[in-house]
Amino acid sequence: MEVLNIIKPENQVFCKTKLMTDTPLSYCPGCGHGTAHNLTMEVVDEMGIQEDTIGVAPVGCSVLAYDFMNIDMTQAAHGRAPAVATAIARTWPKKYVFTYQGDGDLAAIGTAETIHACNRGENIVIIFINNGIYGMTGGQMAPTTLEGMKSSTSPFGRDIKTMGSPLKMTELVAQLPGTYYVTRQAVHTHKHARKAKKAIRQAFENLKLKKGVSFVEIVSNCNSGWKMTPNDSNEWMVDNMFPYYPLGDIKVNGKLK
Amino acid sequence: MSELKLMKGNEALAEAAIRAGADAYFGYPITPQTELIEYLMNEQPEKRTGMVVLQAESEIAAINMVYGAASTGKKVLTSSSSPGISLKLEGISYLAGAELPAVIVNVVRGGPGLGTIQPSQADYFQSVKGGGHGDYKLYVLAPSSVQEMSDFVEDAFDIAFKYRAPVLILSDGLIGQMMEKVELKPQKQRRTDEELIKECGSWATTGKTKDRERNIITSLDLQSEKMEARVHRLMKKYEQMENEDLRFEKINCDDAEYLIVAYGSSARISQKAVEMARAKGIKVGLLRPITLFPFPKKQLFELTDQVKGVLSVELNAGQMVEDVRLSVEFKVPVEHFGRTGGIIHTPEEILEALEQKIINNGSIKHHKTRESSIL
Question: Which of B72, B90, B218 is facing A88, going by the closest CB pair?
């Protein structure tokens, strides 16, 4: 049978959301960003809110998120996405506004913007990809880098005596009254991806309630930065990242779990 | 309906922003501009016009909020004073790079560093020579009265949207703090979302509709050719600003034998010095650049056929004088006079400097050190 004979609507069981463009992803093969992008766009698609969604891209590996997500997007300066999103949400209160940020962006240079947007209870979704490293600049230590973990700026492993402890941003923002939903997810297996999608959906649904920030951390791998194969990096993530960054909801409906 | 009021410069600007139909203000307190955000908070413009006012956690957050609102086509402004503007410069460079309309107000105080809270014009270089990183310029308006603090807000928004570029209102602690009579313009309606989309829908990130491709706001071009094309596009805008939107004022220039060049509060004080000189029989004129970029280069050069020397009067250690020298192309002597540290020169001091440096010293040398140019 010819391939063209197989590609027919009646045979289709799954297709890529139209909210992902056909631009080839700039991410390394095996990276979790592509899945996280796809899940976010699936949620926007399924909720039918493309016309009312405005995304804010960070600086980092996902700086080009606007090339892949078929929605209106603004690219923010490094770490400032929550401030940019604050203004959009305040001046367009009916829109669904979200930021998509990495750990260097959100937990290092953008700490103030993150904390204060959360503390003000801005009506935005923050999607936070935590892979414990600066990917785009080539694998430097992030605030989230684990103790003893090697990077190009901690070549002998992160020494917490001189470099501080890995920062649990998600637990931190959960303490603030301005966050309504805080959760930590992963996307390395189908099961985890389905759960993550549910969490992203919940976050976007929450925007209708105008109750504050919905914060979704996704613990992800960086096989290039960690210098591992994609499979090894996922196993390493399960063994090392998850014990320090445990998955699950931290705050639901404004209440700590 | 227009309205006559006695107001501080900072307050007049804040009120003018509401009346200009601004959609949002984001700011952070710093002396001597704090009355601006205080006035806005007190006026509750959200109730008057629906304008959003928010006190940010830092000047950095405030300028990035401006970037966010501007990227959706909203009329948005922020204000600060010198050290705060230094913090905003990254965001201002992004606004220029991403080609976004926005208004930034600098009520200048003395520097460098924490400096002083007194008036100064020491941010001239920062304002007209870039300030932030990269190849960009700001359209810079320099008010010299409370009336202009009010009038320039709408003008600044018009320019910002005409060029899709950030515009700076460069004031100082004197104009910001002093009270004068001001005629306020009538309230302009804020644009509805539909009107905004009609005006800015081709570029603003207001939500992708089915009838158009997605809009993207970014200053990033990883391909060098694309980045160069963006820079060329910016340069073309600046050229157009020079051709179409240059503003200046000539006072007593027709028969002038000597010329003072001064902007903002210095121009105000210099005007008195011109009067005093004329009372003594010295024919002095004043050229006041109202826009510092674009700068009235040609107008200044044309005056060199007529005047014997030029004094650049500034509240700084000598900044605009460099542009004055470039403009006159060394055809006539150019000297600088200025006070710093927050001290405001008197008309008497200006006249004395004019007599000593320009009139009595006909053959002015250009090798004078900067120190000796300050009294």
Answer: B72
